[in-house]
Structures are given as structure tokens and as C-alpha cells.
Design a protein that fits this description.
Blueprint (H helix, E strand, L loop, with lengths): L4 E9 L6 E9 L5 E9 L3 H7 L9 E2 L4 E8 L11 E4 L8 H4 L9 H6 L10 E2 L18 E5 L3 E4 L5 H4 L5 H12 L7 E5 L3 H13 L3 E6 L2 H9 L4 E4 L6 H6 L8 E4 L4 H9 L7 E6 L10 H9 L11 E6 L10 H13 L1 H10 L12 H6 L47 H6 L2 E6 L2 E5 L4 E7 L2 E5 L8 H7 L6 E5 L5 H4 L10 E5 H9 L10 E3 L2 E6 L2 E6 L11 E4 L4 E3 L12 H5 L3 H12 L5 E3 L9 H25 L2 H9 L6 H22 L8 H4 L3 H19 L20
Parallel strand pairs: 10-11, 10-13, 11-12, 13-14, 14-15, 19-20, 20-21, 21-22, 26-27
Antiparallel strand pairs: 1-2, 1-4, 2-7, 3-5, 3-8, 5-6, 6-9, 16-17, 17-18, 18-19, 23-24, 24-25, 25-26
Length: 742
């Protein structure tokens, strides 16, 4: 049978360390499952250099190249989904029959070496020939250092024709290896911290992928200043020039003191691998290695892996949860090459900001029309040129615009001395700014003396409750101070960022439980530091982990929609955030709550539970049942005073008197005085009243003098706007002025 072939030219490597020499060759007509591609572009990867130096035993002479892109010229009779004229990217080859391939993990094909490095078809034959001499091809199923390549339909990926082929070529190996490690092998989620050691093609792809997923920190490490500049252009938040440091792990920890969630090591240097492991965040930091196990000349060997990991996996320092070791196989795909390649192309289409940032940094092209960020919008002047701008300073005595707004308050009486707990004066708290305390049987309370959270240690891991940014990574430090168990579950009390905005500190693999409304709000207002819950519920949810049970309940909207009750019945601890703050008057405006009457109703709902300890989310204390009752009594007095104030000052005769007292031309001053009259009446009622134990509120709760006026205003307005009015609560026709409730 006559062999049909096609003329081509290829860069042939004849011998170790030899030059690539252009020669005329012949390429077989495609077999039924093969494709003939006219090459337009190809990348040059370090793997090609390793083969040239024979650090990988690929037979010579050979046509290398494995990051090809081009146009289909001919297809075999059994090929589907491709036709002449299609633009394609070429990637690694696989057998398609082994368990890994059948389960859509061809990167781990049983015949990965034979399919990619044997420089022949899997049946041992050759499709590339030259006159009078042996020639090997099919490197990575393509041998793209040629004008034409004979490929297999499994490693030939169709791409849109508007994608420049010279940019698409590196997707076949380097880019999908780096990006695939972050996106697939690590499944990185928003808010993680990522370190990339070595920012060649693979490392830069990892940097871009970190930018795409919304990592809070992407640290690029290299010895080449130009590469580091490019890494910053492509999304790195920090760069480290190894020449400027004697301790790389310390430099990495200088970015994130707790350590990095993910580190990708691409340099193949043993000392960098050690630094990567040392810089991981406990207890579940992960490191990925892109190198060759044998013969890579200064690369990392398996014994070095054992030493690097074993020396640091000692009791009390669980620094490593997983390792991805790349031994020459593409780490990018757990699926066919077409899926990661096309996914990266979609990201390119939907992430134009990366390219724009690079162009602006290098002064190329027209600058786009500037769009204001939310913070920039709020800082734009909203006044005409005749108005004097207000300029904030960082001077110690600066206090906003107190000549127009609120005056500086320095004269209120001191809080009750028992409000300030002993831990505030300890050296540990002054140094680390957090306090952790066991309430009962593995249930711990954590505070920054401003914000509170909690966690429960179980036999199978730690359940965290909230992640306030004010506590931040100290939450993890608190957990590590009492257990080496990982955080496996996180409960969102509600959706507000001041209580869950540090969620990434727990790592990317935590199961998050929240009310379904919380998820809806986070979907509507996305935030990478508040990832979406993985488990939601409507009315109740029982979480049992390692022998510990927490009962979650939604009793209706209170502080905000979705705010839940978290009860630990065995430990007799109740957590309800932003309702009351034991020992204090609670933060202004009823803790900035949205539904005041539902918030009041939550007071009664809390007292329905049987608990000894209460976590309220704020200030310096956990509480007891009796302390919660005290707070409930305080707010009942505010309600009582506000009801009387509205009744007294809203009648038309009183209202007219107040409104007209300021004279003509000051209607808004009169309105302010009317509302303030009700507020002041309420405050006087509360502060001068003898409470149930005979003392004043200022003697029982901290913050009463400063906060009561804000609570009074909020409750007065809620009564005026939302409470039913008496039957005569509207103006009758012809009455002026009538005795009506305003």
C-alpha cells in the first residue's frame, strides 16, 4: 500500500545539547483518529530544554515542541468536532482507555510517559520521516517545532477564530499548568492567599488565576526584576526579589503573618521548596510543586521532598495538609485538555481588566474612560464651587466637623468599674489584642474587646461561629492555642461584613452554614471575603460534628434578615449576635438594627432559652442569663419613655409650639427640635429612673450616658412611623388645628 505523505519543514534536534536544525521532512496522512495541523505559533517550554540537554531520556533525533497552535488542514475519517479551517490549540496526549482517562483525568493517564515522551505513536510507529535517516516525532502527541504537526483528536482543541494563535499557543502546557494548579488542583476560592515561587510562564499563569478567583493576596517570587514587574501587572499584590532577602519564608510571612494558604513552587530548587513549606498557614496550608523528579539538574528529588515535609510535620505544628507533586505530567487537567484550555479562554474574555492594567502600567494605548470606585464616588464633592471643602487630617486632635455636627464628648461619667475585665491588663492581651476563654466543655469565646466570636472543639474538628475582621487571623491563633484540629465548619450568624468579613482566614475547604436569606443577600451583594454558604436552612438546622451538637434556628427578622439563634444545649451556651451586649447599653441605634419591633421581640425569644452563657457579638464580655435580663429591662425602659414622649409631644398643640419657636425661615431647625424634644424626654425618663435593684442605669451598665440618646431616637422614630395610632390619629375634615397624633 502506498503511503500518502505531506511535505513539511521541522526544527530537528540531532544530538544532546545540539542545535535545532531546519530540515525537510515528510508527514503521514492522518490516520482515522489523527489531525494534520498547519502550525502558526508554538511556545518553547523548559521541558523542551530539558530534553535538549537529555535530562529526560527522549530518543534522538527528534522534533520537539508541545505548545502548538494552528489551523486544521486535514482530519481522519473518525475525527468528530474538527474540520479543515478550524483554529486549534495543541496540548498533551493520553491513551483514552485507562481508568484515569475513562474517569476524565487524562493528566494522570497510565501511559502518560509513552504518550508524551516516547516520541512515537502509542503503537510504536512513526508518522514523521526524512530521507535516509531515522526521525522521531509525536512529542506530546504533536511535535510542534515544524510547519505542520500530526496530532490526535484527544489533544487538539478547537478555539474561536478571533483568538490570536500566537497568544493561544502557551495554553497547551505552561499556562494551563500554572492556572490549572490554582483553579483545579487547589480549587482556590475567593479570599485565599497564594504564593508563587518562580514567575516564568507557569508561575505567571498561576498569578493570573489567583487574580481571577479573587485571592486577597498573590505573592510573586523571582530573581528577575522584569518578571516581577510583569507579575505585578498581571495581578500580583506583592512581589519579592529573592536577591533582596536572606530568608524567603520570613519574607513571605511578612505579607501574611499567619502564613499562606497555597504556595506553588515552580523553580525546582530545594531551598525554595523548604521556604514554601515554612511559609504555609497552619493547619491546612497546601503546596504545589511543578518540577521533575529525576534528572532536572538542580531540581527537587523525592528524598528532598521527604526531608522538607518530614522535618516540619512535627507535633503541634500541622503545617501541611496536601501536596501536589508534578513529575512531568501536566498538572492542569483532571479533564480532557479541551476543557481547561477553553475555560482559560473564557476567563480571558471576561477578565479584560488584567490586560488594561498592563497596558496602562507600560504607558501603551489609549487610557480607558476612568470609572469611579464606590469609595471614589463618595469622596467626590457634592457642592458648588462657593462652598468651602472639609478636609480631614491625621492630627491627633482632629475630630471631623464638630463645629457643625456632634461635639467631642469627654465629660460623661466613668462606666461601672466592674465592666472592665481583668484580661485587659494582661501582657498577652496588650501584645496580641485578643482574648480566648473556655466557657464550658470545649465551647470557647474569643474577643478583641470590641467584637466577639466563638468556636467549639469537637472530636472531628472545629466549628467556628463568625469571622469578624476586627479579630481576623487572631481567630485562628486563638483556635491553635487550644487545639491542633482543623476548622471544618463555619456558621454565619448573619450576613454583615463586620461579623463574617474575615472568613478566608479559615481556608478554602470549610463548610459554611447559614440561613437561606443570608445566602440570598450575599449572592445579591457579592464579597470575596464573605464566600457563599455551602449549606442553608429555612427554619431550623441541627449540626452534629464529632459528638457535639449545635441547634440553629431562625425566629424571624430581628437585627437584620437572616440573623439566627445558635444554641449549644450540652454546653448551655446561646449565641445571638447584635441584640444585646451584656454589661453595656449596646451599640447606638439599637445596634444599628433594621426592624426595631422584631429586635425587641428577639429579647423575649432569647429569654425563652435555657442557657448559662451568652455570646452577643460585641464589647468585652460574654454574658449570663441574669445579665441579659438586665439589658432587656434597660431597653424596656427606653420603650416606656419613648411611648410617653411621642404621646406628649406629637399632639398638634405641642408640635405647633415647638415648630414656631424658632421663628420664620427655620422650618428644619423646628423639625429637629420637635424630634429632639421626644428624644430628650425619653433620655430623662431612662437616666433618672430608679431601676429594679434601686440603682440608676448609669451605675449598672456601661455606655448608658453616651448611647441612650441614640437608642431613644431610634425607638421614638419606630413608634412614630410604625406603631398603630389611636382611633383619632388622623386629621378630620375641617379641623385646624385638631388634637391629633402627628
Amino acid at each position: 500500500m502506498t503511503r500518502v505523505s505531506h511535505s513539511a519543514r521541522a526544527a530537528v534536534l540531532e544530538e544532546k545539547d545540539g542545535p535545532f536544525v531546519w530540515q525537510d521532512i515528510e508527514i503521514d496522512d492522518p490516520r482515522p483518529d489523527e489531525v494534520l495541523v498547519r502550525m502558526v505559533a508554538t511556545g518553547i517550554c523548559a521541558t523542551d530544554a530539558h530534553v535538549r540537554r537529555q535530562q529526560m531520556p527522549v530518543p534522538l533525533p527528534v522534533v520537539l515542541g508541545h505548545e502548538g497552535a494552528g489551523v486544521v488542514e486535514r482530519v481522519g475519517s473518525a475525527v468528530t468536532g474538527l474540520e479543515p479551517g478550524d483554529h486549534v490549540v495543541l496540548s498533551y496526549h493520553s491513551c483514552g482507555r485507562c481508568p484515569s482517562c475513562v474517569s476524565a483525568h487524562p493528566a494522570y493517564c497510565d501511559l502518560a510517559w509513552e504518550a508524551n515522551f516516547a516520541a512515537a505513536r502509542l503503537d510504536g510507529t512513526q508518522g514523521l520521516h526524512r530521507t535516509g535517516a531515522e526521525l522521531h516525532g509525536h512529542f506530546f502527541g504533536q511535535s510542534s517545532f515544524a510547519t505542520h504537526a500530526l496530532t490526535h483528536q484527544r489533544n487538539t482543541v478547537k478555539i474561536p477564530p478571533d483568538i490570536p494563535l500566537e497568544l493561544a499557543a502557551p495554553l497547551g502546557c505552561g499556562l494551563q499548568t500554572g492556572a490549572g494548579t490554582v483553579l483545579q488542583a487547589f480549587s482556590a476560592s475567593p479570599g485565599v492567599s497564594i504564593g508563587v515561587i518562580g514567575v516564568g510562564a507557569v508561575g505567571l499563569a498561576a498569578v493570573m488565576a489567583g487574580n481571577v478567583v479573587g485571592a486577597r493576596a498573590v505573592v510573586a517570587v523571582d530573581v528577575d526584576a522584569a518578571r516581577l514587574d510583569l507579575a505585578r501587572d498581571l495581578g500580583a499584590t506583592h512581589v519579592i526579589d529573592v536577591r533582596d532577602t536572606t530568608d524567603l519564608s520570613m519574607a513571605l510571612r511578612g505579607v501574611t503573618p499567619r502564613g499562606l494558604d497555597i504556595v506553588l513552587e515552580t523553580s525546582g530548587r530545594a531551598e525554595n521548596l523548604t521556604a514554601a513549606v515554612d511559609s504555609l498557614a497552619p493547619p491546612r496550608g497546601r503546596v504545589g510543586i511543578v518540577t521533575f523528579e529525576q534528572g532536572a539538574g538542580g531540581g527537587v528529588t523525592s528524598p528532598q521532598l521527604a526531608r522538607a515535609f518530614g522535618a516540619r510535620d512535627r507535633p503541634g505544628r500541622r503545617r501541611l495538609a496536601a501536596v501536589a507533586h508534578h513529575t512531568g505530567r501536566p498538572l492542569a487537567g483532571r479533564t480532557l485538555p479541551r476543557r481547561p484550555a477553553r475555560h482559560l479562554l473564557r476567563l480571558r474574555r471576561h477578565q479584560p481588566g488584567v490586560r488594561r492594567r498592563r497596558s496602562r502600567a507600560r504607558g501603551q494605548g489609549r487610557a480607558p474612560v476612568p470609572l469611579l470606585t464606590p469609595s471614589e464616588r463618595t469622596s467626590q464633592p457634592m457642592c458648588d464651587k462657593t462652598q468651602r471643602p472639609i478636609v480631614a487630617t491625621d492630627e491627633p486632635g482632629f475630630f471631623g466637623i464638630d463645629n457643625y455636627g456632634f461635639p467631642v464628648n469627654r465629660d460623661d461619667p466613668l462606666d461601672p468599674p466592674e465592666y472592665y475585665p481583668p484580661y485587659l491588663d494582661t501582657e498577652r492581651f496588650r501584645t496580641y489584642r485578643y482574648h480566648v476563654e473556655e466557657l464550658r466543655d470545649g465551647f470557647y469565646w474569643v474577643t478583641s474587646a470590641g467584637y466577639d466570636a466563638a468556636f467549639v472543639v469537637t472530636a472531628d474538628g472545629v466549628i467556628a461561629i463568625d469571622a469578624p475582621p476586627t479579630i481576623g487571623e487572631n481567630m485562628v491563633a486563638a483556635i491553635e492555642s487550644v487545639t491542633d484540629k482543623p476548622v471544618t465548619h463555619l456558621i454565619y450568624s448573619h450576613w454583615h461584613t463586620d461579623h463574617i468579613g474575615a472568613t478566608p482566614v479559615y481556608g478554602p475547604d470549610v463548610e459554611i452554614i447559614a440561613h437561606e436569606i443570608t445566602k440570598e443577600l450575599l449572592e445579591r451583594f457579592p464579597d470575596p471575603n464573605r464566600p457563599l454558604p455551602t449549606v442553608t436552612f429555612r427554619d431550623t438546622y441541627t449540626l452534629t460534628v464529632g459528638g457535639v451538637t449545635l441547634e440553629l434556628a431562625y425566629r424571624g427578622e430581628n437585627h437584620c434578615p437572616g440573623n439566627i439563634f445558635i444554641h449549644a444545649p450540652a454546653q448551655r451556651v446561646l449565641t445571638v449576635i447584635d441584640i444585646v451586649s451584656p454589661g453595656s447599653a449596646t451599640f447606638m441605634h439599637c445596634d444599628a438594627s433594621q426592624n426595631i419591633w422584631a429586635w425587641y421581640e428577639a429579647h423575649a425569644q432569647i429569654l425563652e432559652y435555657d442557657f448559662d452563657y451568652f455570646v452577643g457579638g460585641h464589647h468585652m464580655h460574654y454574658g449570663t442569663y441574669e445579665q441579659v435580663k438586665t439589658c432587656v429591662e434597660y431597653f424596656a425602659d427606653i420603650h416606656e419613655g419613648a411611648m410617653a414622649a411621642v404621646e406628649r409631644f406629637s399632639r398638634s398643640d405641642r408640635l405647633d409650639e415647638i415648630l414656631t419657636a424658632t421663628g420664620p425661615g427655620r422650618v428644619w431647625v423646628g423639625t429637629e427640635n420637635a424630634i429632639n424634644s421626644m428624644v430628650n424626654y425619653t433620655v430623662k425618663h431612662v437616666l433618672e429612673k430608679r431601676t429594679s435593684d434601686g440603682r440608676l442605669w448609669s451605675d449598672r451598665l456601661a455606655g448608658v450616658i453616651s448611647q441612650t440618646k441614640y437608642h431613644a431616637y431610634t425607638v421614638v422614630e419606630a413608634i412614630r412611623l410604625e406603631r398603630p395610632r389611636p382611633q383619632s390619629g388622623y386629621r378630620l375634615r375641617g379641623e385646624n388645628p385638631p388634637p391629633f397624633i402627628a
